[in-house]
Structures are given as structure tokens and as C-alpha cells.
Design goal:
The protein has 325 residues and is mainly alpha-helical. The protein has 15 helices and no strands.
Length: 325
Amino acid sequence: MPVFLFVVVAIWLIALGTWWVFSSASRRADVDRLKSRLLGTSKAKRDKKSSQKEAALIRQDQKGNALAAHIVQRFQLQARLHDLLEQAGLKWSPAKLVNSCLVAAAAGFFAGWVILPGDYRQASYLVALVAGLAPFLYVLKQRKSRLRRFEELFPESLEFVARSMRAGHAFSVSLEMIHREFQEPLAGEFRRTFEEHNLGLPLDVSLQKLAKRVPLLDVHFFVSAVLLQKRTGGNLAEILDKLAYVIRERFKLRGRIRAISAHGRMTGIALTCIPIGVAVIMFYVNPDYVRFFFKDEVGHYMMGAAIALQLIGYLVIQKIVSIEV
């Protein structure tokens, strides 16, 4: 029966994950098409050009950990995990991330099996699942914070480029000056773009690589404006000033939306934490009552349904309060 409970919870989690993936993909489909049009490139062509490089990287990962590299190669996760780690600013390999998840899951299962009493050792599977997701969640958190920091510094960097161009500097020199005047992660990304262009890579290609490393819509607008000005001409400094103004106005609107939706987000967190807190308190106050959910067959169904419904409720609340600007 513990195995059955684990299978039920796993099926629910897989179903919720599938729903979240498809909903996110459908929501960002228009944004992806807009980005491809702004860059003037085709996603299929980019994937075709990078397929040979990805195979070489997978062979290098196999030297460190054959199992993790096999999982990455089997499920074709090399490109996605590599982009995710690069956007997070972590010098990890995809195989290292997968290996960290496997080790964390094994350590969580062992810790749960040792710490929990005999009647509650079935929960070790849930502990292993949560511990296995911890490294991946850490990478997502680092990516989110890094992109947010980049987005905060980006409008000021655009105005800096516009001022330097008015002062007589070339556009490529302005990109190199950003590295000395701004903080990470913006300084490192623009320095990498300048070095790629300085070593012989065409400017449009280096800017497109910047847009791929920093998947923000504002960066795609910046790259599109620079490439369009390069082909047709125009006052690039004025365009960058207006783009910086639009980005700042979006920040103001986003702050107002977050202030309005703060009550909904706090409600979702509270409604999620209350059942967990009650379960922990009951575990110490009335262990016999909690033991029913681990030993009885009906208790297994009830606990699985409660966890699944709790996750569904949290995702629904997050869907309601998340408003794209």
C-alpha cells in the first residue's frame, strides 16, 4: 500500500506538471513568435545549427557521471538545461544538475527512512521527491533573481549607451564601457557580447546570442532596434531613450499590479501552510490520529487526495494572481 500511495501522488504530480507545462507553453507562444520576428531568425534553424555542438558536450559530461549523462542524452535535456544554467549564472553542466537531483533524492529518502518512526517511513518517498527537486528549484530561483537584477539595470544601461553615442563613441565601444560602469549580471553579459564582436563575430550574431542568453522581451526589443537601425539608418540614441522610458513605465505598472495582487498571494501562501502546520502539530499532539493516514487504506486515499487538491488550489491561486505586463 505505501507503494500504491507513492504511485498515486506521483501520478497527480505528473498530471499537474504536465498541465503547468502546456499552460505555460500556450501562454508564451505569442511571445516566442514575437521574439523570433524581432530577431529575424528561425528557431528550427538555430536548433539545427546547434545540434552538433550539443553532442560533443554530452560526451564530455559522460566522463564525469555516466548515469547522469545518459539521462540527459536519453531525454534530450542537454540544450534546455544548458540554457537554464547559463541564464542562472551557474558554471554547472547539465549532467551535474541531474546528478545533484539524484543524490539529493537518495539522501532525502535515507534521512526520512532513518528519522521517521516505523509507521511513518512510507513518507520517505515524499521526502525523496521533495529533496530531489531542491537543486532544480535552486537553479530556477537563481535564474529568476539574476534576470530580475538584469531587468532593473537595463533601462539605465540603455540611457548610458545613448549618452555615449551622443558624445561620439561607437556603439561597440559603448557596449564595452557598460562593463566598467555597471554591476553584474548586466556588465558580464555586455562584456561577453563586446568580446564576441571584437574577436570577429558579426554584430547581429553577437546581439542575437545576447538575446538568447537573456530571454527578456525588453532585450529582444533592444536587439531588434539596433539591427533595424543598422539596416535602415536612423537616430539610435533617441530610440534607446524611448525604449528605456517604456521599460520604466512597465516597471511602475508591474509594481502597482504586485501591490494589488499581494493579498491574493499572501492568501495562497497561508492556505498552503495552514494544513502543513496542522499536520505537524497533530503528529506530536495526537499521533494515533495521524497514524490512520499511514496505516489504513482509506487514510492513504484521503492523504493522497488532500495533497493533490492542495497543490491544485495553490496553482490555481498563483494562476489568478500572476498578471503579465
